[in-house]
Design a protein that fits this description.
Helices cover 33% and strands 29% of the residues. It has 339 residues and is an alpha/beta fold. Strands 1-2-4-3 form a 4-stranded mixed beta sheet, covered by helices on one side. It has a 4-stranded mixed beta sheet with strand order 5-6-8-7, with helices on one face.
């Protein structure tokens, strides 16, 4: 039994997700205390509870403490299982974060799996589906992991009602990752998404992007999408020879269209000015797949507390396989030793 303190480091849901994944894969039971202790609403919220339940189902495990608001649980895994799975969050909680929990487990299953998750697909507290499909999954494919994701319906906060479908082939990768340079810029594009909102919201955001970034009309699209409630997001893609970076910004009640656009513009400018191939969000997502595969090395910004906490949880199960080396300023090399 491994005991995890959920208040360590960034003290959020990533500790829970990584612990569940590694428990199911290694077969080591885990106790997690102080779940999400550093969040405004500590304990298991809907999204986290569904992640716990999903992890238990895809490995035939048992869990004590799986209820809303719970701040502690004990997870007893069995063996990863293949199948056609469906999980309903029942709120606008993130579909992608639930998938993040069970994807590594299903890579260890004895056969292919499909998983459909309904809930939130676009909210400000989690990576949107486009981050997985355009940025993360292509890199996973490069190291030999076969997984795909499809957005079936948009789901914004607070209504939810979105849906994603992922297909996963077993296998944890056979090729080490070496991603030290992003390569030549090949494409840039922004999608402004609105659902059940006036058309001028998308128009104002698109105009703000065009003027501030000096992008052409063809590089920015305004899209009205179907969703259960109102929603607004800007998804920007910066494509290079070796990596695609996805930047997102989300509309909220009483947040102006111009402010949403400026949030996206700020992040895009920061990344365009840098020559770093792996953004801080992608760095965090790469640690576990590389640790479970044959490892690799990539260059990124100064590791966030989210990333270093994730590395610390991985160490509880697999040993000190993640190392960080500062080159200069915000230029860092992260090396992950595989299994």
């Amino acid at each position: 039994m491994i005991t995890i303190d959920g208040s360590q480091g960034e003290g959020g849901g990533q500790i829970l997700r990584t612990s569940l994944s590694l428990s199911a894969i290694t077969g080591i039971p885990v106790t997690i205390n102080n779940i999400r202790a550093k969040r405004p609403k500590p304990g298991l919220q809907r999204q986290h509870l569904v992640a716990v339940q999903a992890a238990a189902r895809v490995c035939g495990g048992q869990v004590e403490g799986a209820e809303l608001g719970s701040r502690a649980l004990v997870f007893h895994p069995q063996q990863p299982l293949a199948g056609n799975w469906h999980f309903d969050i029942g709120s606008a909680g993130s579909c992608t974060l639930v998938l993040q929990t069970i994807l590594p487990i299903m890579l260890h299953a004895p056969g292919p799996s499909t998983v459909t998750i309904t809930g939130g697909t676009h909210n400000g507290m989690a990576p949107p589906v486009e981050f997985l499909s355009m940025s993360l999954f292509p890199i996973l494919h490069r190291v030999g992991i076969s997984a795909g994701i499809e957005l079936q319906r948009h789901g914004f906060y607070p209504a939810g009602g979105g849906s994603i479908r992922a297909t996963i082939q077993p296998g944890c990768g056979t090729v080490p990752l070496l991603l030290l340079e992003r390569g030549k810029a090949t494409n840039r594009h922004a999608d402004v998404l609105v659902a059940n909102l006036p058309a001028h919201v998308a128009y104002r955001e698109a105009q703000e992007l065009k003027h501030a970034l000096h992008w052409s009309h063809d590089e920015i699209d305004e899209n009205e999408v179907t969703a259960d409630g109102p929603g607004n997001a800007i998804i920007t893609r910066l494509r290079y020879a070796n990596v695609t970076t996805v930047v997102s910004a989300f509309g909220e009640l009483r947040k102006s269209a111009e402010r949403v656009a400026q949030e996206a513009i700020k992040d895009v400018r920061r990344l365009l000015k840098s020559d770093i191939p792996v953004c801080e969000h992608l760095a965090d997502q790469l640690l576990l797949p590389l640790a479970l595969g044959v490892g690799g090395q990539f260059r990124t910004l100064k590791p966030s507390e989210h990333t270093t906490t994730n590395g610390a949880i991985i160490a509880k199960f697999l040993g000190d396989v993640v190392s960080y080396e500062q080159q200069d300023g915000d230029n860092w090399i992260i090396t992950v030793r595989g299994r």
